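Field reference: sequence -> structure
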Amino acid sequence: MKKTMLLTLLLFATFAYGQQQMRVAVMTTVDDADSIQYMELSFLTGKLREIASKVLPKDRYGIMTQESIVDRMGSQERAEKECREASCLAELGRKISASYIAQGRIGRFGGKLALKVELYNSKSGNLVGTFSETAQDLSALVTLLDNKAPGLFSEILKENKTASQPSVAGGISGLQSGTDDEFYVERRYLANFATEPPNAILSFNGMPAANCAKTPCSAEFAEGNVRIIAVLDQYETADTTVSIKQNNQTVNIRLKANFGVLEIKPAYSEGVARNENWSLAINGKAYSSWKNRLSPGKYGVKLSHRCYEDISFDVGINKNGLEVFDMSSYANLKKGGLTLSAEKNGNPVSEPVFINGRRAGETPFSGSVAVCSEIEIGSDREKVNVKLEHKQTIKYVHKIKTYKTFTDERDDNEYKMVTIGKQTWMAENLNYNASGSKCYSNNSANCAEYGRLYNWSTAQKICPSGWHLPNNAEWNALVTAADANNDNFVLVAKSDQGTDDFGFSALLGGYGSGILFVSFYNIGSNGYWWSADGKKLTCIKLGTAGKHNIQVSDLYSVRCVQNSGRGGSTTSTAISKKSQKSPVSNTTYIETATTGTATPKKARVKSSVSNTTNLEIAAKRWEDLSNANECLTNKVKKNANCATILQQWCQALYELHEPLPEFCD
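Structure field:
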């Protein structure tokens, strides 16, 4: 009896052994030539495991997960090291208790990607199967795996096909009957993934997720452990396993920095070309920031500038390190030779020479000069328009401009004058202080440099005796004589970045706009001058391109031309010292008077023409305000309704060229 029972147990154990699952390990794919990225290697490994699980029956073969392999090796680091360095896969298979072990290796052959996959029987050490193929890219490799890997894993089935199955002696067989067992449904949960910093690329169990490729993102997973790999440039790759066990579970992964910082401190010698940035290139790639994160390693750095010698150096960047390069000791100006002479009225003269604001000698001058230097000559500091060349000597003769002058008897201001073509012009903007004029930004220093800005009504009569406001024809004659149609900067003063070839010295004084509240625009970039073209609003613009809409309330510069340049006319409409009131129109006019407290009196309206709508509207509005004296006080001027009515009234006067009360200026 005992012998019979022992035999029965032995037969049952033998049957159970025959039914035990065989473990199949697919090790991480190894890249021997660093041909593809880490995430792509993980994808290929996952692809091999997927194919193995489809080919091999699940009731007899189990595909080992990466976690089970790591558990048997002791750590992730050791597992990766063994995968890369193992010379005998069969021995590694025995270490992790795998019946079969397979691994793919990537390399390069003839400029193509090369893939070799081997499959071993761990117990016997025999090579069960292998294949080697080449492909142009990763997509082609995946196609090769789909075609070749199923046949490789089918070799396992062939090797075990002869295994005997225990026979059944007698009794009922083949009975089939339904059961009332509960049907198993896999539990799945939505998980949220984030990294610090964000935008890391994720893979799950060696496979990317289409809807969760970059953090932050969300994805759906079956209940259980999920291996997550997060990759972000300049950060260490994170490899972790989390247990998914509830809905809307949040997984945060903090990435460790794997970069250092290179900081450049720019410098300029003597302030030359400070408004132009240096160009920075690191390993040939342009960078716009002076402080840049770089992965650990060695880099070649080049700094270049139009006005300075190139600076090149190598720098080693360590993890979490900071390297600072201060250019102040290495910013060397590009230089060339200059031989400079000066002539006045055709005769050579000795004049002081200034380089970047400092006196450097006198003409004739010879010396080494930085190519981007600003060179001036003479007591008036005329700009020398010479282009210097790096490591070359340039000879240049500067012709000093001479000006005649005249004095405005109204305020004793002296102005330069220049003849261009057949016209004699003021070589400076008018700076006579009159009602209807302002300094740019209400700053007297701007008046001293750029002259005053005048409204249209005042500009028509503001030129000194013997001079007048030029009309369009006279402006066009100037442009033609200076050949300035294509390059109006030949008329612009050197201080405003022009060439001033003819000594006209146009100053780009900007303009003002508004009646009660004036705003100012474009000083140093554009200049605007009134033109006396009848009752049509006209101005001349020099400077940068762009349209400009003229308003009667605008404030522009004034440049006067001698009367002889206006068809021989010698009449003048200048405002005298004694009176700044313009002649009253003999057709339609408004006359106003004010007391010492600036209280307006009722306007008197006369008309001898039919088209008086604007003037009548203006008078009516002024009449409506005659009892509202407080509208002229600073306190109430801020009231929007009052200010609007005053502005409309002043506008109507402007359009009719009528004299204006002081508060309209």
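Note: Residues 404-565 form one domain.
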